[in-house]
Write a structure and sequence with these properties.
It comes from Eleginops maclovinus. The chain contains 8 helices and 8 strands; from the N terminus they run H-E-E-E-H-E-E-H-H-E-E-H-E-H-H-H. It is α/β, with parallel strands linked by helices. The chain has 2 domains: 39 residues, no CATH class; 132 residues, Protein-Tyrosine Phosphatase, Chain A, CATH 3.90.190. Helix 5 packs across helix 6 and helix 6 packs across helix 7. The protein is globular, with a radius of gyration of 19 Å. The C terminus is likely disordered.
């Protein structure tokens, strides 16, 4: 029997299974993000969803918006693409942290796009400074920011947790609890959670809790 040491030494990244994520934009454009080891490829998905699924997909829109702070909202791309929802919540700024999801009202809202892959190895902390600056700018101008990704489950909640830790002085546990309370489906992937749990936040001057 091969020893554990020998197995580890003979391990090859080429033996890793591929991980695929499909993203569908409002316009119907579909892309596939494929990870193999540390390499990612992004291609157009030419196959109609109904041919790939062995079940009836839920095509209803997810318009639930989590109110994290009066100026900070959390949701999915559906909420970001529904003008009635945006108007209802008095949104002025939209932070799009999805990959391949367009901004559909460029003349009506202030947008910032920070494309983050929903993969445990993706460095979400790398983008926090830009995201926090956008949110803080909107806050200083009495605006309301909606942070969204594709499903509003992993990337957007992770960014909001990072913002609360970095700019609002909250602990990881307090920020996670607040985000989950505002949007119960929030569930950042394990890699994002590990990064945020170990995130050393700078001192906050004059933060308001």
């Amino acid at each position: 029997m091969q020893s554990l040491t020998a197995e580890i030494q003979s391990f090859s990244r080429s033996r890793l299974r591929k991980q695929c994520t499909r993203v569908t934009s409002l316009s119907g454009r579909r892309i596939i993000e494929t990870w193999k080891g540390s390499t990612i490829t992004v291609v157009e998905d030419p196959v109609p969803p109904e041919r790939m699924l062995g079940y009836v997909p839920d095509t209803s829109w997810d318009l639930q918006v989590g109110i994290v702070k009066p100026y900070l909202l959390l949701g999915s791309q559906d909420a970001a693409h529904d003008f009635g929802t945006l108007r209802k919540h008095k949104v002025s700024n939209i932070l799009n942290v999805a990959f391949g999801v367009e901004n559909v009202f460029p003349d009506l809202f202030i947008y910032k796009t920070v494309s983050i892959l929903d993969h445990p190895d993706a460095d979400v902390l790398l983008h926090l400074q830009d995201c926090c600056a956008f949110i803080q700018q909107a806050r200083s101008e009495k605006g309301v920011v909606l942070v969204h990704c594709n499903a509003g489950v992993s990337r957007a909640p992770a960014v909001v947790i990072g913002y609360l830790m970095s700019c609002d002085g909250q602990s990881f546990d307090a920020a996670l609890s607040l985000v989950k309370s505002a949007r119960p489906v929030s569930s950042p992937n394990p890699g994002f959670l590990e990064q945020l749990r170990g995130f050393k936040t700078p001192p906050v001057n004059g933060s308001k809790h």
